[in-house]
Amino acid sequence: MSAEVINGRDLAQEIRLELKDEVSKMIQEEGVTPHLTVVLVGDNPASKSYVKGKEKAAKEVGISSSLVELPETTSEEELLNLIHKLNEDKTVNGILVQLPLPNHIREQKVIEMINPNKDVDGFHPVNIGRMMLGEDTFLPCTPYGIITMLKSRNISIEGKHAVVIGRSNIVGKPVGQLLLNENATVTYCHSRTANLKEFTTKADILIVAIGKPNVVTAEDIKDGAVVIDVGINRLETGKLTGDVDFDSAADKASFITPVPKGVGPMTIAMLLKNTIKAAKGLEK
Ligand code: GUN
């Protein structure tokens, strides 16, 4: 293996320590404890486990959090009413509705109900617009975590060719935008892209957010590329794996992120950062 591994678990831990200091200063100097409210609808086991991880991390840095658990049968109207109440509640700084929601609830409707100034996921169209304009805002946590990982290793982005595989609203689209904001030349690839390899082999920075295990291998990447694996796939054996075949790709890449201990922990660290930002208020 020649690539340097960017360990997201260690970096997230360092960030949480910094955030812990920041929160204790806020408490001491301003008497403000940031508060995050997480809303979970239904019994999706993966969602339950993610939410637990978010609450645990919040507690560790001194952010207070509450979890509202609603049954699968909750109507869209009931959920929208709850969000309205949380928007009005001055003690709540950040609101996170865990996705996916049950099929009978329109996700976009729910996201758009959240007050953009409490939208710590950065999913509200107002915040997506602010991000596109390069304004100060809540950046979506996974893309924000990816940029933070690149910067932590002083990996230059400006002028580089970044290729993003995946075009989801949560990861693919916004990470491409953030790389563009950092002056990269960005190419988006997706499930309908013809000759994917033609693009991936030209990438200086390759972001892989496909959602299928081991799709990208050494032959798909350029020598010395930076490879960021956003996939979290559970194999039948129970083992977690990314979208990239780590062992082969690591022989060719200059930097690579593993799964687990890669992008995942960074997503949660950025959520905490956004919650503190929400408690401080966005720049006007
Ligand atoms: N489901 C999967 N990832 C996320 C995320 O980053 N935020 C929310 N709210 N739900 C998710």
Architecture blueprint of SSEs:
Layout: E1 4-5, H1 8-30, E2 35-41, H2 45-61, E3 64-70, H3 76-88, E4 94-97, H4 107-113, H5 125-133, H6 141-152, E5 161-165, H7 172-181, E6 185-189, H8 196-200, E7 205-208, E8 226-229, E9 233-234, E10 240-241, H9 246-250, E11 255-256, H10 263-280
Parallel strand pairs: 1-11, 2-3, 2-4, 5-6, 5-7, 7-8, 8-11
Antiparallel strand pairs: 9-10
Bound molecules: guanine.
Function: Catalyzes the oxidation of 5,10-methylenetetrahydrofolate to 5,10-methenyltetrahydrofolate and then the hydrolysis of 5,10-methenyltetrahydrofolate to 10-formyltetrahydrofolate.
Catalytic activity: (6R)-5,10-methylene-5,6,7,8-tetrahydrofolate + NADP(+) = (6R)-5,10-methenyltetrahydrofolate + NADPH; (6R)-5,10-methenyltetrahydrofolate + H2O = (6R)-10-formyltetrahydrofolate + H(+)
Family: Belongs to the tetrahydrofolate dehydrogenase/cyclohydrolase family.
Summarize the structure in short.
This protein has helices at 8-30, 45-61, 76-88, 107-113, 125-133, 141-152, 172-181, 196-200, 246-250, 263-280; strands spanning 4-5, 35-41, 64-70, 94-97, 161-165, 185-189, 205-208, 226-229, 233-234, 240-241, 255-256. The chain has 284 residues and is of the alpha/beta class.
